[in-house]
Amino acid sequence: MALSKLDSLYMAVISDHSKHPHHRGKLDNVEVLEMHNPTCGDVIKLSISIDEQGKIADIAFDGDGCSISTASASMMTDAVIGKTLDEAQDLANIFSSMIQGHEEKEQESLGEAALLAGVGKFPQRIKCATLSWNALKKAIERHQEQK
């Protein structure tokens, strides 16, 4: 019974992020990275503002996606804002490992995004959950190449 209540809580949080995503939109005067999930058609447009100290000063996403994709992007933006690029990269790696079913000690560092661990039980949804995190990795990689 307790597991059922916990699952309901997780679903409520995911549903809330999907219906009322955080940091949705586009930042001005920064490059926008667009990625697609060819399996289901989800699209994310990610824009990141990085300050002089190499921290994510602001982040926003837009696009079209399913509830898992949107919730994951919302949770990802919450988790990485204010983090250094290295810290954000580490969080993206932790998320990728977690979503593939690996138990991660650092999982709690993901904040509410850790609630998406159960998505790993549905292989067809893994790409939905990881789309925004993969876009983050790509954006960090591009920024580091431009330095």
From TrEMBL:
Q: What is this protein's gene name?
A: nifU
What GO MF annotations does this protein's record show?
iron ion binding; iron-sulfur cluster binding
Stretches assigned to the NIF system FeS cluster assembly NifU N-terminal domain: 10-128
Please provide an example of a Pfam family that matches this protein in its UniProt record: NifU_N
Similarity field:
Belongs to the NifU family.
Check the UniProt entry and state the signal peptide residues, or none: none
Protein name in the entry? NifU family protein
**NCBIfam families found in the cross-reference section:** SUF_scaf_2
Biological processes per GO annotation: iron-sulfur cluster assembly
| Domain of life per record | Bacteria
